[in-house]
Design goal:
The complex is a heterotrimer. Chain A has 14 helices and eight strands. By secondary structure, chain A is α+β, with helices and mostly antiparallel strands. The termini of chain A are far apart. The chains are: A alpha+beta, B alpha/beta, C mainly alpha.
Chain lengths: 372, 169, 395
């Protein structure tokens, strides 16, 4: 056997591949079914959003932020809104903040549903995907009523939100949450505790807590490694300090701590927490204006700031530099997927080809967010 | 720990390497000598008082007369953050990589190299990341002019609105 | 068959043609009728049924536009695929690339020759029927491997190799699970095995003894693996290997692969039904041979279609296993258990050469208990789920 000549096979996975969540590309060096390494090659969805920001002004950039991460566009809206507000020191009205919290939490539900749904599909079970998408469509209906769009919302403005909640929307939203909670249990019964599913996810792509911090993983990926950290809880922004909710962390119940199953379960549990927040927000929402008085010709004083938003894919950092004119001097978005992509090359070593798909899905990598 | 105290601690340690401490609101920052970035970086990470274990953001800004590389650091255990800056000349901006201290710097430095042309010395894999390998120039520099075509593919297109206007032929 | 040929020759329909030529014509015509009239439409209809069942499991509607409830969808798809361009990649091995789908289809049509639809409706009651069945279905692996190799595509190659590894491995537990039945009946003939069972469930080989019960389950799972069905659809794992060995195929050749896959469901069901579920056995309610044959045909098809439905159900429910899990399931669990089954049955037959009727009743009762527990669990989740359920199949 020792004289048998073996060769590594170089596989090109993507940019057109069914499970690369958009247009990712991996150059996989494989020895049979086992990967030596998977080298990510990103940039296929680069739309130079940061450059656009320098050309279109503060208000004009808001619709573009939707495209940074079109799966959870509310958070990018909010990130840009908060960055501009911090630069100009604008106070958002209370009701506006509540509207933002409600919209973003609904968006988090939608994004996590897509994530856990595609997780099932990447493992080979089609049914969970359609069940998750069904629920997501209902959320999209609600959001559509709120802001007129289903994907690129453009709901928020600098200083608040564009529109108040439509009449009767609160009751509809609450009715939806009543419908959604048992569905989540049904979903868990359908797939999460399936033996094959656990076997496929447990002990795949283990990220230790140190590694997660070192590679700057954020959001559910960080919490999956056992670090109890949520910007909403630990560095509260908006009105999150007024809500009572938990931060679910990975516990390594099915395998080693920080494996794909932990990250998946964190997302599932976060869905429950989001429902909790939404109930409180919909109950406590005060009356008042939703949009602060912001000049049409918005010129924040020269300066710079960084704000952090807990998006569905974790801590989203917006770094904005103003030079006192109506156009931002520089905008930089540090997104969760960008950080997560950096660790794939290291994690992929020694996994099987099928596990690469699991790994990508468990890190919840979204192509537009990487390339921006 | 307050940002000002963090910067003071760095100044106590690396007196002459600290070029400027700004208390600019909302985010105060510290500017240090590019030559000492590695030393300062490893101190900030390993010092038990600072324990800035996460490089949360690294970005570059072109100020027309200089290029700044901005490091946003954060500590999960101490729950404080710091903003570190280095100022580089526009011609041939070079700074040492922080990849060996914070792994997340790897991709973010590649991105800065790609879009602003900052060369990170000692970086393990300094390639373009978002733009094509043979793209001319660095798009986020203020004086960047977009080439009108790339490998025969036009990068500009006529506005369809003009074509629909009957007065203009 | 011989009688039919003799009758035709005696009737003189073909004039003075030599008898062997008449026999050849009759056989070819009959085969064509069976394959084109039964096998291919069946594969097509199964594809429609599968899409409808699957859609309902996934809370969708599924194809319902072409014909009543979308019944003619399979025909429309077939026509579409025939009309499509047959793309052959330039760098592929053209000859092998073209032949591969036909080999797969061959492996799918050949077993129909020994399909025991009823006591007389069988094309050829060979005395090695079941052996023939397992051997010709194994031709699939040649076709799939050929397709994977000839496409000159790395994803196809991995798909082909996976398929070869998988089918060859699962042949072993499948073959070993047929053994207990052969031991008990002493025949390999399909009709012989069915005749050794009775119409009542306690006389089926499924409940003959504990070993056959296990063997039946192993055989079903192994057959799913051989037929590339979920949860063992690794060769065409669409989320990993694009479309596996079929990546480069288009048009009719692509359709052939999937027609074989759907048609194989019937063959899987037929093997299990014949060996363990009493085949076409039906109580003697009439002395009219035609009536009895029709009843037997219905019985056989109901049993087979139930198994086909189960495999669709499984496909709609389970995720895919990984290649190492697939192999360890086969070699670490199925193969040893199959050997135990074989030896256990041999001892059982040595103790009770005529079978043990009490064991049949007990096993059947246990089977009912299992089924009741299963149905209760299903009902529990149905009650818990707040979704509106549509049991009406025609929407």
């Amino acid at each position: 056997m020792s004289t048998l000549r073996t060769e590594e096979m170089t596989l090109n996975m993507g940019p057109q591949h069914p499970s690369t969540h958009g247009v990712l590309r991996f150059i996989v060096r494989a020895d049979g079914e086992v990967m030596r390494e998977a080298i990510p090659d990103v940039g296929y969805l680069h739309r130079s959003i940061e450059k656009i920001a320098e050309k279109v002004g503060y208000h004009g950039f808001m619709p573009y932020t939707d495209r940074v991460d079109y799966v959870c566009a509310m958070f990018t809206n909010q990130g840009w809104g908060m960055a501009s507000e911090k630069l100009a020191n604008i106070q958002v009205p209370k009701r506006g903040e509540y509207c933002r919290a409600i919209a973003t939490e609904f968006n988090r539900l939608a994004s996590h549903l897509l994530s856990v749904g595609t997780m099932g599909m990447d493992i080979g079970a089609m049914t969970p995907f359609t069940h998750a998408i069904r629920e997501r469509e209902m959320i999209n209906d609600l959001i559509e009523e709120l802001c007129g769009a289903r994907l690129t919302f453009n709901y928020m403005r600098i200083g608040g939100v564009a529109w108040d909640l439509p009449p009767g929307w609160r009751e509809k939203a609450l009715a939806y949450l009543d419908h959604f909670e048992p569905i989540l249990d049904e979903y868990n019964a359908l797939i999460s505790y399936n033996k094959i599913y656990i076997e496929r996810l447990a002990n795949v792509g283990i990220i230790s807590a140190d590694e997660a911090v070192n590679y700057n993983l954020v959001g559910p990926n960080l919490r999956g490694s056992g670090i109890k950290w949520d910007i909403r809880k630990d560095l509260p922004y908006s009105v999150y300090s007024e809500f009572d909710f938990d931060v679910p962390v990975g516990k390594g119940e099915w395998g080693k701590l920080g494996d794909a199953m932990d990250r998946y379960m964190v997302r599932i549990r976060e869905l429950k927490e989001s429902v909790k927040i939404l109930r409180q927000a919909l109950k406590q929402i005060p009356a008042g204006p939703v949009l602060a008085k912001v000049p049409r010709n918005f010129k924040p004083p020269a300066g710079e700031c960084q704000i952090r938003v807990e998006s569905a894919r974790g801590d989203m950092g917006w770094y904005a530099v103003s030079d006192g004119t109506g156009y931002p001097w520089r905008v930089h978005v540090r997104t969760g997927s960008f950080a997560a992509m950096g660790i794939i090359q290291k994690l992929s070593q020694g996994l099987m080809i099928a596990d690469l798909v699991t790994l990508i899905a468990s890190l919840d990598v979204i192509a537009p967010e990487i390339d921006r | 720990m307050e940002a000002a105290r963090i910067y003071q601690r760095i100044k106590d340690r690396f007196g002459e390497h600290v070029l400027e401490i700004s208390d600019h609101q909302p985010d105060p920052f510290i500017v240090i000598d590019p030559a000492s970035i590695e030393e300062v970086g490893s101190f900030m990470r390993s010092d038990p008082e600072l324990a800035l274990d996460c490089l949360s953001n690294e970005s570059g800004v072109d100020y027309k007369d200089r290029i700044e590389v901005v490091y946003h650091l954060f500590s999960y255990s101490k729950r404080h953050g710091a903003v570190l800056k280095v100022k580089l000349p526009r011609e041939n901006p070079t700074v040492a990589t922080l990849e060996n201290i914070w792994k997340s710097a790897n991709w973010m430095e590649r991105e800065i190299f790609d879009l602003l042309g900052v060369i990170f010395e000692g970086h393990s894999d300094l390639r373009r990341i978002l733009m094509p390998e043979d793209w001319p120039g660095f798009p986020l520099r203020k004086d960047f002019v977009e080439p009108t075509e790339y490998h025969g593919i036009s990068t500009v297109r006529e506005s369809p609105i003009i074509r629909l206007d009957p007065k203009k032929k | 068959m011989q009688e039919l040929i003799n009758n035709i020759v005696a009737a003189g329909t073909f004039g003075k043609m030599p008898e062997t030529l008449v026999a050849a014509i009759v056989i070819i015509v009959l085969s064509a009728v069976v394959f084109l009239g039964i096998a291919f439409p069946f594969a097509g209809i199964v594809s429609w049924v599968e899409r409808r069942v699957w859609a309902r499991i996934q809370s969708r509607v599924g194809p319902n536009r072409v014909g009543p409830n979308g019944f003619l969808q399979w025909l429309a798809d077939g026509v579409k695929h025939v009309c499509k361009e047959d793309v052959i990649p330039t760098d592929s091995d053209h000859q092998l690339f073209k032949i591969a789908p036909y080999l797969v289809v061959l492996a799918f049509v050949l077993p129909w020759a020994v399909m025991p639809f009823s006591s007389s409706l069988i094309l050829a009651d060979m005395n090695v029927g079941i052996l023939y069945m397992t051997s010709v279905t194994a031709i699939t692996v040649v076709g799939v491997l050929m397709a994977g190799w000839a496409s000159n595509d790395k994803w196809s190659l991995i798909g082909g190799i996976r398929s070869a590894a998988q089918i060859v491995s699962y042949e072993i537990p499948a073959g070993l699970s047929i053994f207990p039945v052969v031991l008990m009946t002493g025949t390999l003939s399909m009709q012989g095995i069915i005749r050794a069972q009775g119409w009542a469930p306690q006389h089926w080989f499924l409940f003959a003894n504990p070993f056959t019960f296990v063997a039946a389950n192993i055989l079903y799972v192994s057959a799913l693996a051989e037929g590339n069905r979920t949860p063992f659809d690794l060769p065409e794992a669409e989320s990993e290997l694009v479309a596996g060995f079929a990546t480069e195929y288009s048009g009719m050749r692509y359709l052939f692969f999937f027609m074989a896959e759907w048609g194989n469901l019937f063959i899987i069901g037929a093997i299990i039904t014949t060996l363990f579920l009493g085949g076409w056995q039906f109580p003697q309610v009439s002395n009219n041979a035609v009536v009895m044959n029709i009843l037997q045909l219905i019985t056989f098809n109901v049993k087979v279609l139930f198994l086909v439905f189960v495999s669709m159900w499984i496909r709609g429910t389970l995720p895919r296993v990984r290649i190492d899990q697939l192999m360890s399931l086969c070699w670490k669990y199925f193969v040893p258990i199959s050997f135990v089954n074989m030896i256990g049955t041999a001892i059982w037959v040595a103790i009770w050469p005529e079978g043990n009727s009490v064991a049949g009743y007990i096993m059947f009762a246990l089977g009912i208990v299992l089924a009741v527990i299963f149905i209760q669990r299903v009902m529990y989740y149905l009650r818990r789920s707040r979704m509106e359920l549509y049991f009406r199949p025609t929407i």
